[in-house]
């Protein structure tokens, strides 16, 4: 039989060599490097190994069996990011496995960073090389754990599972599906990023709507600080007022018009700003 990359096989030890052990399935021979053997092995001993390609592209083996397989999903930490190529994840073996740019968001600013964690399964590329591929929502077949209604307004944490212009999907640490609408975040979260937010709705199907924005009374203080910083860096002038276009406000301050107006109201109450001719001035 042909030994396949990414498979787990039971092979016999044929002999020991300087670099490790030579294993066989009766037809093919494959190297188990000394560093990949868990114990001292004996000739004719049967061992269970995972097959992967080394840096030279040769098929080799390890006794460390990863939890990620072709038919089994699991989390894998990003260990390297390579522009235009993709990211490499640690599946538990000594070699990082590529998640191709073809399977990452079009916008590189929401690509995972080193230390982020992706939910992946193993796959092969067109050349037969072992890769990792992010799991999609279709793979779950809507079989998510149902969240209890008591979670409404509760703090929640989770990992970004999918990101798009419309919003992002997270898997919470409890295993629930949460959706973050683009208006409920100040910046686009990265794929694989760990985020903290709050539940703003528990839907009938047991999934969640989540916000990464603080409660209004706290957010108003933060937004006011953002506007003050802008004023100080731009000669004390903001070219907007509480009647300005919402899109202009969002593109400049990354906040909604409602949040902008609340922040302006606080600053005017504190007598730190004034408005004239459609503009806002630092006092």
UniProtKB/TrEMBL annotation:
Name of the molecule in the record: S1-like domain-containing RNA-binding protein
SMART domains, A to Z: S1 (SM00316)
PANTHER family: CONSERVED VIRULENCE FACTOR B
Database matches in PROSITE patterns: S1 (PS50126)
Gene3D superfamilies registered for this protein in UniProt: Nucleic acid-binding proteins, Winged helix-like DNA-binding domain superfamily/Winged helix DNA-binding domain
Pfam family name, one: CvfB_2nd
Similarity section: Belongs to the CvfB family.
InterPro entries on file: CvfB_fam, CvfB_S1_2nd, CvfB_S1_3rd, CvfB_S1_st, CvfB_WH, NA-bd_OB-fold, S1_domain, WH-like_DNA-bd_sf
Residue span(s) of domain S1 motif: 153-213
């Amino acid at each position: 039989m042909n030994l396949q990359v990414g498979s787990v096989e039971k092979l016999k030890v044929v002999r020991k060599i300087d670099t490790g052990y030579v294993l066989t399935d009766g037809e093919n021979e494959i190297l188990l490097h000394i560093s990949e053997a868990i114990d001292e092995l004996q000739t004719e001993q049967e061992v269970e190994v995972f097959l992967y390609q080394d840096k030279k592209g040769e098929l080799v083996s390890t006794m460390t069996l990863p939890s990620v397989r072709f038919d089994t999903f699991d989390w894998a930490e990003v260990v390297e990011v390579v522009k235009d190529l993709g990211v490499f994840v640690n599946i538990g073996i000594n070699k990082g496995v590529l998640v191709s740019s073809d399977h990452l968001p079009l916008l590189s600013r929401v690509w995972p960073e080193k230390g982020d964690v992706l939910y992946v399964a193993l796959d092969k590329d067109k050349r037969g090389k072992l890769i990792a591929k992010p799991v999609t929502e279709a793979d779950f077949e809507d079989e998510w754990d149902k969240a209890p209604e008591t979670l409404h307004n509760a703090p929640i944490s989770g990992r970004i599972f999918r990101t798009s212009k419309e919003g992002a999907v997270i898997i919470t640490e409890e295993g629930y599906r949460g959706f973050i609408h683009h208006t409920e975040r100040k910046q686009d979260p990265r794929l694989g990023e760990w985020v903290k937010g709050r539940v703003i709705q528990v839907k009938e199907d047991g999934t969640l709507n989540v916000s990464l924005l603080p409660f209004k009374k706290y957010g108003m203080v933060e937004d006011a600080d953002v506007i003050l910083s802008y004023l100080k860096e731009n000669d004390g002038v903001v070219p907007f007022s509480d009647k300005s276009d919402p899109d202009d406000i969002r593109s400049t301050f990354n906040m909604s018009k409602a949040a902008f107006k609340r922040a302006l109201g606080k600053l005017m109450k504190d007598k730190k700003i004034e408005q004239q001719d459609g503009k806002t001035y630092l006092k």
